[in-house]
Predict the structure of Pyrroline-5-carboxylate reductase.
Amino acid sequence: MKTELSLALIGGGNMANALASGLIGRRCAAGNVHVIDPGEAVRARWDALGTTTAAAPDARLAECRVWFFAVKPQVMAEVVRQCRPWLRPDTLIISIAAGIPGEALARWLGADGQPYARIVRCMPNTPALIACGMTGMAALSGVDASDRALAEELLRAVGEVIWVDDDAAIDAVTAVSGSGPAYVFLFLEALIAAGIEQGLTPEQSRQLALGTFHGATQLAALSPDSPAVLRDRVTSKGGTTAAALAVFQDRGLPDIMREAVDAAARRAGALAREFSA
Ligand SMILES: NC(=O)C1=CN([C@@H]2O[C@H](COP(=O)(O)OP(=O)(O)OC[C@H]3O[C@@H](n4cnc5c(N)ncnc54)[C@H](O)[C@@H]3O)[C@@H](O)[C@H]2O)C=CC1
Ligand SMILES: O=C(O)[C@@H]1CCC=N1
């Protein structure tokens, strides 16, 4: 077990917790993880895991090879600047903040007009909590092959990873897979409620809806056929599925999805304008 890696988690909330659950004991010893978070209750949880903690950036950051920024976009600029005094030439920066461009991070961490480009921007999602995450990643120019491999290995500890060519594409990743679990949960809620209206008990409807999502997504992942072909195979001519799909089409489900994903991507752009000046 390679546990010598030293990692700083800057922001110790939901997503940091998900990442740590995949890494501590496997890739990092708890004692090599340093968590910065002003929340006293948050720090107490990390202390119980055996990490070190601090309420604000401190000198231990200089000993950490990887800094993982997991604070809200609204506070990123200030937090990154507070951490900067402990930056070393080989520090690998990984940021998961929605909407904050790598270029802004590079500027905030730079010195003498020189941006710091050893930065990987990535967008995981909450199923990372059960090691079923989906992460999109983009590397800035200062990231060499070994840093890239390290960043990928860290995010792989909580699920699957894809690389996108440039930082701007992370906004699209955010709109599809970062926010995506919420779309799936909304769909599930609606399907469960509809099943109850049809006379099923809440538990029956929940089991049927969850089992269907699980089975259908597994089939789509494992089958060589496209989701459209698989959908067609469920849909008997003049049958029940056709009746339901006609309602989805009439109500414009594909348009609703396009507009929703576009709204998320545009919000990512707006966050960048608001919080990365
Ligand atoms: N929740 C999600 O589904 C996803 C969130 N993200 C991104 O991850 C980031 C964190 O989100 P969550 O973990 O959901 O939020 P969270 O609210 O659970 O965690 C944020 C943590 O940052 C701490 N914090 C606040 N000010 C701080 C400061 N000055 N220094 C250090 N820590 C500070 C808070 O006490 C909190 O524990 C956000 O930028 C979000 O855009 C990315 C992918 C998915
Ligand atoms: O809603 C948000 O802004 C964050 C980013 C992706 C998921 N949650």
In short: Residues 98, 174, 178-179 surround A1CAB (ligand 2) (CB under 6 Å). The CA atoms of residues 252 and 258 lie 10 Å apart. The chain has a mean pLDDT of 96. The chain is about 50% helix and 15% strand.
